[in-house]
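Re: weekly structure request thread

Next one in the queue (287 aa):
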Amino acid sequence: MNKNDKQFVSSFDKDAKEFLVLTETDGSCSRSRGYTMWQRYQPIMAAIDLQTNTLTQGEMSLVWLISETDLQAKNYGWNFEKESIYHIKAKKSLNHVPHLYVVEVLEENCSNPQLEEILAEYQTLVVIHPQNCSELVLDKYLKLFTGTCQWNGESCQLCLSADHDSCNTAENANQTLELLLAQSEEWDKKARQYAGQKLASIATDWLQDMEYDDDYDEDEDEDDEDETQEHIITKEEFASRLSISELAVEADGFFEFYYDDDDMFMGHVVIVSGNIETGFTDAYFAG
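Done, posted below.
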């Protein structure tokens, strides 16, 4: 443990307190530059301070440190099951960060009426059904409604961000979605054109780099080889080769269109982002 790791630990209370915590989803690990230890995070949706009997809800996490060796061995110290109640000893953050530093797990599979009520509500299925869409089911951890919709005559995946003030609805994102779907042919055409303007020359560079990297037959006809290497992907060709795969619409009017790239970027996804008020803002490939 180096000085950065020790400083992280010192950002929590010296004395541990007992809590009942309700876990949410699976945990994850991260490590910042300059640290030797990995920080293991376990999302929780609620915690009860057993000294004061105070209930806290919201986006919170349990955290503790593990070594590189333990990470590689998938030895995470504690393996919390999702959507379960635990009795733990932990230290509260001194920096008003919603984390509890775990010192000890005292009991698993605990019972508590308050936490059980929260869990029951969390496990209740929330579904909306916007026009021209399938039923969209809420992922409460990600705060996203997911399903499919009809986009320019094709079915594609759809993600709608939940409203900020109520994660059980998506009225703000749905307003943007309705505007997009009402003119999906025009939005789709312009998105493809925009992507072609931004990315066609890069796709050509990729194609030529791949051609030069290939091992050519020594006896191959040189004219055919030159013709292959000189192929240029035009903006029009790039636009025509894209096929829609997913729409993501946020509550504040921003959106992203995800397109399959027809192997122009070796199977990467092409993403066109924008805002319903100002139009397109970027196009790039990822994945």
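Residues 215-219 have pLDDT under 50 and may be disordered. Residues 172 and 251 are 5 Å apart (CA to CA).
Next request, please.
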